[in-house]
Amino acid sequence: MYSLARSLLFRLDPETAHGVALRGLDLAHRAGLAARLAGGARVADPLTLMGLRFPNRVGLAAGLDKNADHLDALGALGFGFVEVGTVTPRPQDGNPKPRMFRLPEAGAIINRMGFNNAGVDHLVARVKASRYQGVIGINIGKNLTTPVEKAVDDYLICLRKVHAHADYITVNISSPNTPGLRNLQFGEHLDALLGHLREESTQLDQRDGRRVPLTVKIAPDMSTAEVGLVAASLTRSEIDAVIATNTTVAREAVAGLAHGDEQGGLSGRPVFEASNRVIRELRQQLPDMPIIGVGGIDSGAAASAKVAAGADLVQLYSGFIYHGPALVGECARALREAGQA
Predict the structure, then answer these.
(1) Among 130, 174, 175, 237, the one annotated catalytic
(2) Fewer CB within 10 Å, N- or C-terminus of the chain?
(3) Which residues of 116-130 are buried (b: 16+ CB within 10 A; e: fewer)?
(4) CATH code for position 224
């Protein structure tokens, strides 16, 4: 069924197709058909991490539902958890269109969306209105017009507003589409940012009487030494988990392909090995910290390889777009079988 839908959707430009697909999924959910699209009931493979009970180890990565407008429908597809965002304090349009490109020969997508979203207040309202009862992650970022040296202010605004409505919160410092953002991944910038966020998060935990884990999403384009520095900073700031990885700016894997030279972040199959390398290095540095692996998962075997590299949980994005809802169950079953082996 999805192969037919995809053939039709792929005749549209990627961003238009994205919107059409999500609206169609909403209709299917209201008709009670969303679970059928995913091939049946959610795969049970429970795991407790960060004090949270995950029904299975396969989640949806941030970026697909930036505003939490489709949370109920996506949550009905069998995911163990859903991450929404990236959200910023103020609404912003993002970068000029076109800003999303398919590379089907490589199973990849290039995007330079630029944190287009309706703002944190809209997202919070949508989460509050949702009936989804699963684990919800909320991914936060900074507005384009906020200087990098004042980025912490934007993150704190978002943290305060989403804390009561998130099961975990992700600090996105690794998108290549907001100028200067990746500079926050290193050195004193990272220590200062995470220190402020950890302090504020602890106070909010005490206020609300519930602990909301804080995670950080990092880029794949780091040397081994840089991964080590990031790992040390995560430890110092008592971060609860790390998400590895965001999109890559490398283009070797898509050189010569149509759209292969477009600016933005490259996701999908070409980032698979780079993501796994970072995961392996993080696992060596952080033997006890939960790792959420994302990047190039387009099959149950790929999900299992991500876990073999050191991930505890995985997230889908480009693979979900190319292979559809059935990929969720395929990956969850593969991880369950690997865990029982």
Answers:
(1) 175
(2) C
(3) bbbbbebbbebbeeb
(4) 3.20.20.70
